[in-house]
Amino acid sequence: MRITLSFCAISLFAATASAAPTTWNLATGYRAESFHTENLAQFAREVDAKTKGGLTIQLHPNNSLIKLGDMLVAVERGRVQAGESILSGISKELPIAGVDSIPFVVDNYADAQRLWRLQRPVLERQLAARGLVLLYAVPWPPQGLYSSRPIRGAADFKGTRMRTYNAATVRIAEMLGASPVDVPMPQVGAAFAQRRIDNMITSAVTGVENQVWNHLHYYYELNAWFPKNMVYVNAGAWQQLRLDERAAVQSAAQAAEARGWSRSEELAREAAARLRAQGMVVDRVPEDFERHLKRLGERFTREWIHQVGHQANDVFIPYFTEPRLTARAP
Ligand code: PCA
Predict the structure, then answer these.
(1) Pocket residues for ligand 1 (CB within 6 Å)?
(2) Domain that includes residue 33, residue range
(3) How many angstroms is it from 329 CA to the middle of ligand 1?
(4) pTM over 0.70
(5) How confident is the model over 296-316, as pLDDT tens digits?
(6) How far does residue 249's CA lie from ligand 1's centre (Å)?
(7) DSSP states along 101-144
(8) Which atom of ligand 1 is nearest to 141's Cα?
(9) Which of 42, 121, 244, 246 is the most exposed place for a label (fewest CB within 10 A)?
(10) What is the DSSP letter of 54?
């Protein structure tokens, strides 16, 4: 009888222990109103619903808990259970993460998907080696060029200050003879207002979010690359979840990825229209300059392959040998 009782007590304890709700802190460097963060908030709500309150994800947007640049190490060390990083922002630690910010390799969403399919397994292996688990990734709309002055050619960049957000944009600024100035995304509007920067390469939606029309008038649609943000979790925190909870998180992550990709594509159109509606000139750069940029892109690619070595093959060989899904934009 005594044995049965204590057995009951133990199983009761085990049942309560496994049912104890878990909370993850998830940090991001982007504002709560950014489309990536809105998608994350929906992901968190779905996880809560699917685990019936078993896992709550507490969001900490806007660099408030962890700064974007410190995210990888913070999640690795378990300062937060989960985080969001822009992939190309962690390319020093995980070289293959930088493949989506190579200029002029991908110029449409279908190819961006194709690149992601090839990049994902390599990236997952590298994350696993650092004790991290990938949940999902979503691209920003294509990258274009904002400028306070009309752009006719490369000479228009000499001596200007170019806002940068990762190693790739720093290198491009250098190639154009501009001085790179690192400005976190939520401070872009203020940086233009204070005349700390003259131009930048980023998406139409980032310009809208920072209401850049108050400070400059030119946006050139380059479709230069599709950088992605990824959401990931510390492997220790992941393993503490029950198997059914992990499955719930994975299914919410899949939904977040699909939703995020369509929202990004929708926003690419809406945001460019909004820049126009606010009186900005939205145009293509002159053809000569576009050719010049593409040459710089090729130089950038060579440098990247040199730096990353054979891993580049795992992604680039299939990417360039598979048939393209869509015709290249003219
Ligand atoms: N917006 C982010 C990254 C890429 C983008 O479109 C930024 O400007 O920091």
Answers:
(1) 86, 140, 165, 185, 202-203, 206, 227
(2) 21-90+108-140+226-272
(3) 22
(4) yes
(5) 999 999 999 999 998 899 999
(6) 26
(7) GSTTS--SHHHHHHHHHHHHHHHHHHHHHTTEEEEEEEEPPPEE
(8) 6
(9) 244
(10) S
